[in-house]
Amino acid sequence: MTPQVLMDGLVAGAMIGLGAIGITLTYSILRFSNFSHGEFLSWGAYLVLAVASGLGYLAGGPAGPIGPFSFGWTLPVALVAGIALTAGLALVVDALLFGPLRHRGSAVIILVMASFGVALTLRSLLEFVFTSKPVYFTDALQIARPLGFGLRATPDQLLALGLAAVLVVAIHLLMTRTAIGRSMRAVSENRQLAGIAGIDVRMVIRTVWIFGAGLACVAGVMSGLLVQIRPQMGLDLLLPLFAAAILGGIGSVPGAMIAGLIVGLAEAMTVQLVGAEWRAAVAFVILVAILLLRPRGLFGRPE
Amino acid sequence: MIDLLSYGAFFLSVALTYAVISLGLNVQWGQTGLFNVGIAGFVAVGAYVSALLTTPEAADHLGGFGLPIAAGWLGAALATGFVTLLVGALTIRLRSDYLAIATFGAAVAIHLCILNLQSVTGGPFGIGFIPRAFAGLADRPLAFSLANLALLAAVVLALYLALEHLARSPWGRVLRAIREDEPAALALGKSAVRFRLQAFALGGAIMGLAGAAQAHFIGYIAPDNYQPILTFQVWAMLIVGGSGNNRGAILGALVVWGIWALSASAVASLFPPEQQARAASLQIVMIGLALCAILLWRPRGILGEARILSRHVLRPTSPVAPSPSTTSET
Amino acid sequence: MRPAADAGTVLATRALVSGYERDLPIVRGVDMAVRKGEFLLLLGPNGAGKSTLVKTIAGLVPVHSGAVLHQGADVTAMEPHLRVRHGVAFVPQTENVFTTMTIHENLLVAAQVLPKDRRAGRIADLCAMFPDLARLKALRAGQLSGGQRQMLAVARALIVEPSVLILDEPSAGLAPKVVQEVFANLKAINAAGVTTVLVEQNVKAALAIADRAIVLVEGEVRLEGDARALGDDAVMAELYLGSRHRKAEARP
């Protein structure tokens, strides 16, 4: 097994971790498994692609790469817009579907079924608009630079890792040190009590969707940048996302990232040792193991 | 005219195979309250087992047993029941949405096995030349179609009667007791887990049977036939028809399959031949929206009992007490 | 008895009908008023609807008909967190603190309702009022004893300087000595000027600290009056202590 497995695993794991943070937040506060979360990743990637292409068109041509990276200025700018748009998408879906179902006291199962329907609708909409053909943010090729210890990484990959690290720390600090973070933790523990303690629960719910979808957008763009963009990309990541969220412990932000890295590394090792075609089975095995051995995950609250 | 009849028979036959899957799902969900999001995987197991048992020797996959079709179907039901039992043993104690994730994962794993174990299953190329019932009538298309239709209708009818009988039997009554008032049932010494597992496996076996029926009807199967969209279709059928209700399961299958086929041809006619993939995507978008609309406005479907859903409806969890004008009727 | 809807009424309900389910009202037409500064006790047998009534006032139970008025304003349709800002503080019977958060964080959460510059000061005030809590500030609420949790729940409610403090059976599950402390605390808080509404099963002890009491039976007001007088009332004795006692009480 080459050391390169470590880098591949970390990079994949960072993307899974970011997505898993979104799932763990929405799950702990909204109390249902959102099967459409993967689609926020896909939509994030496509929205950023569309905005970046539009910006490039307006600027009169594709932007040249910034520094050692493969992308031009249009991508970071488009990313900011994309985060806002993806968050908007999540809010719309909640306002139209999940919110009304919640308000009328629908059972968890109805919400999960609805999320399944939303997932299919959003995914097929992407297929309709963009077709299933893979697309890419940039044509520029990246050369992996040696880092020592037999590891190689492209500048894009290192940037992705760095960004993921920064985001995790930022979100963790937000959850533990700020008023909005406390409100989110309060609603996550006891929604009714939060209400009578003066917390605007509806506002907290909107905030959770914004964070979850925003992180998914970043994860989707990373995946699109480092691999490729396809309508199926969210669905392919859904099982690893759930596995990481549950492994990390529902409600734990650092847990979700650590678990994401674990899943990513496990997948990379499996690809090396067994074969790339079995990659998708890894998340399932981890999921079953956790549900059997320690359902509350690494850092979760005991039920 | 003959063509129309033939097509009608074909359409109905496929709808009936879906009805069988729906009946299986109803055992799991309607009677037992288990949320299975991995239906496609179980149907696939049934299809492949039956195909492997009955197809002649082939170079690219396991085979050569050449067993009769009935044996294939029986094997499919048993094998799928067994696989469902395994999955259930791992997951049945989980809360409902963890069960959903786990069954979803199981379907992904099954799909992966089918795709990768090429020497056994033929991999992405699938398995062809699956023997069809009434093959002797192949030269008279109408008779062939009608014979197959009759066979499937008989299967659905037999299954319906058996399941209705089962629901009223002591076993069925214990299951209902567990569903309605678990602590009381447990006090009587009934192991809830054991009964739920049995119901789960039974539902799975029925799904496997449907997979086999589909395989032999079409004559060819491939991993691509068993994607999440199949799971979604069957759930849509059960929801539209009315969950918790065997008649609802059958009705839902016919209605949703009808809508699916109609919308497919309607949308396809709007697009040029080279854009057919796009047309299919648009069709799914419309169906997805329709399902969400149904969940929002009439979650109990056409024939569903309000009680089933109201059993699942929790006390309103929103901090704002719903205004008196919104009722909790489902 | 018509409630006095004058300027001194802090909280009132008018023909209030409420319940979790549309076709099952638990509170069946309650008229009541709480005067500024008073200590009102809500009594009644199990299932009478006392808990449901106060939860309705807090905004947690759907109203079928009637109104909840707070300081003259109709708050019937107001969301719970807005009622808190309006000045209605509610301490539920169970799950009344955030067990995964520290005492300090529990207080911080409650203080978020106040303008920024007042938060620290108010928390300091409450730490002075409850020195035990101040001492254990960094502990997670889940690690506290029953009595300490009750204290924290009350402190949390008081942070917003409410115009009315409502408590649902704060003595439930607590040892008698602790119950005495809790009641003494509540009396002191009321004496300092906080209008208090208390739902209690512990009738005798509660009547001793209250000004006025209302007895609910099957969702309706059955009795109302001065706390001390009700303590001697024959009907009360019948409701709570059984006819044996009634005969004993009926001495000349």
How is this structure best described in words?
The complex is a heterotrimer of chains A (303), B (330) and C (252). By secondary structure, chain A is mainly α. Chain A has eleven helices and two strands, in the order ααααββααααααα. Chain A has a two-stranded antiparallel sheet. Helix content of chain B is 70%, strand content 0%. In chain B, helix 1 packs parallel to helix 6. The longest helix of chain B is centred in the middle third of the chain and has 28 residues. Chain C has a domain of 167 residues: 3-Layer(aba) Sandwich (Rossmann fold), CATH 3.40.50.300. Chain C starts with 8 loop residues before the first strand and ends with a helix. In chain C, strand 4 and strand 5 form a beta hairpin. In chain C, helix 3 runs parallel beside helix 6 and helix 10 packs antiparallel against helix 11. Chains in contact: A-B, A-C, B-C. At the B-C interface, loops of B face strand 4 of C.
Question: Which labels suit this protein?
Answer:
heterotrimer; A: 303 residues; mainly alpha; 11 helices; 2 strands; B: 330 residues; 70% helix; disordered C terminus
Share of β-strand residues of chain B: under 5%
Helix content of chain B: over 70%
Q: State the distance separating the first and last CA atoms of chain B.
A: 43 Å
Shape of chain B: globular
- Average predicted confidence as pLDDT of chain A: 91
Number of strands of chain B: 0
Order of helices and strands of chain A: HHHHEEHHHHHHH
- Looking at how many chains there are and whether they match, the oligomeric state comes to heterotrimer
Radius of gyration of chain B: 21 Å
Q: Which structural class do the helices and strands of chain B define? A: mainly alpha
Low-confidence stretches of chain A: none
**Biggest interface: chains and residue counts?**
A-B, 54 and 51 residues
- Please report the number of helical segments of chain B: 13
Largest sheet of chain B: none
Shape assignment of chain A: globular
Helix content of chain A: over 70%
The major beta sheet of chain A can be summarized as: 2 strands, antiparallel
List the helices and strands and how they pair.
The complex is a heterotrimer of chains A (303), B (330) and C (252).
Chain A: H1 4-30, H2 37-58, H3 74-103, H4 108-130, E1 145-148, E2 151-153, H5 155-177, H6 179-189, H7 191-196, H8 201-226, H9 233-248, H10 253-273, H11 279-293
Antiparallel strand pairs in A: 1-2
Helix pairs in contact in A: 1-5, 1-8, 1-9, 1-10, 2-3, 2-4, 2-8, 2-9, 3-4, 3-8, 5-6, 5-8, 6-8, 9-10, 9-11, 10-11
Chain B: H1 2-28, H2 39-54, H3 69-91, H4 96-116, H5 118-121, H6 141-168, H7 170-180, H8 182-187, H9 192-218, H10 228-241, H11 246-270, H12 276-297, H13 306-312
Chain C: E1 9-18, E2 27-35, E3 39-43, H1 50-58, E4 63-70, E5 73-74, H2 80-86, E6 88-91, H3 103-111, H4 116-129, H5 131-135, H6 146-158, E7 164-168, H7 176-191, E8 195-199, H8 203-209, E9 212-217, E10 220-226, H9 227-232, H10 234-241, H11 243-249
Parallel strand pairs in C: 3-8, 3-9, 6-7, 7-8
Antiparallel strand pairs in C: 1-2, 1-4, 4-5, 9-10
